[in-house]
Amino acid sequence: MTAAATLPAPVRRRPLRAVLRRPSSAVAFAFLVLLVGSAIAAPVIAPHDPDAQELGNRFAGVSLSHLAGTDEFGRDVLSRLLYAARIAVTAPLISVGVAVLVGLPAGLWAGRRRGVVDAVSGRLADTLLSLPALASALAIVAVLGPGLTNAMIAVGIIFSPTVFRVVRGATLAVAEETFIESAAAIGCSTRRTLWVHVLPNIAAPLLVQVTILMGVALLAEASLSFIGLGVQPPDASWGSMLGAAYRSQYDAPYAVVPPGIALVLTVLTFNTLGDALRDVLSGRRAS
């Protein structure tokens, strides 16, 4: 019997509803909806052009015309925060998408076929996991070139061994079930067995891992943008805004606050939802 089958029926049918019954998860989900809505509506709700410069109004404080002040070029910080929310949504999707695209098929195949395929894939994943993540991402970006897409592809490649190990472990457990043996006995091909019978039964741990990786990916994007290898000027990301604030800390020590708070809250949101999903899908109660 699979782990999913041991869960209460309402949880199996409506896992999102079970997650949202928790107050912390409901708040996190509401913040995520607000973030996505702000990213989509940024051109409408942003009070100023995020790239418009007012060099005579550098490092202005909070005012009615600039609710979060201005940066080193006199650009409106609130407008740049709203436009940077688009990066906060799309960057993790790109990197986690690459990780799943690479790690999911490899993990399914290795967990099902075992033998030499499993051994070689496992040692390759262990080798990649043993390397410093940020240094590896920097090396990949050096080959691909700076920019958001290339940076997130690099992060996705670094994440792919983690996805591989989660999928492989779950596949090894499901592959021992009777219904998998029955599928093979009636002539189902390996591909059909993996995608039709195995994948739906390993979706729970994969979903939890993806949710948690979203927060890690956002931190990775912010780190690369902070040092100039992610989002390129004049586009805004919270990481590049933190980098600019760091370089101007003596002129405006408060400039790190808006992008820093936005980054912390978003990463905390992904982690809270990931933990809640893990607890619900494993049958734990809220503490």
TrEMBL record:
The cellular location(s) given in this protein's UniProt record come to: Cell membrane
Query: Which domain of life does the protein's organism represent?
Result: Bacteria
The chain positions of domain ABC transmembrane type-1 read 85-274
List the source organism.
Phytohabitans maris
The record ties this protein, via PANTHER family, to: OLIGOPEPTIDE TRANSPORT SYSTEM PERMEASE PROTEIN APPC (PTHR43386), PEPTIDE ABC TRANSPORTER PERMEASE PROTEIN (PTHR43386:SF25)
The name on file for this protein is ABC transporter permease
Entry annotated with the keyword 4Fe-4S: no
Alphabetized UniProt keyword annotations: Cell membrane, Membrane, Transmembrane, Transmembrane helix, Transport
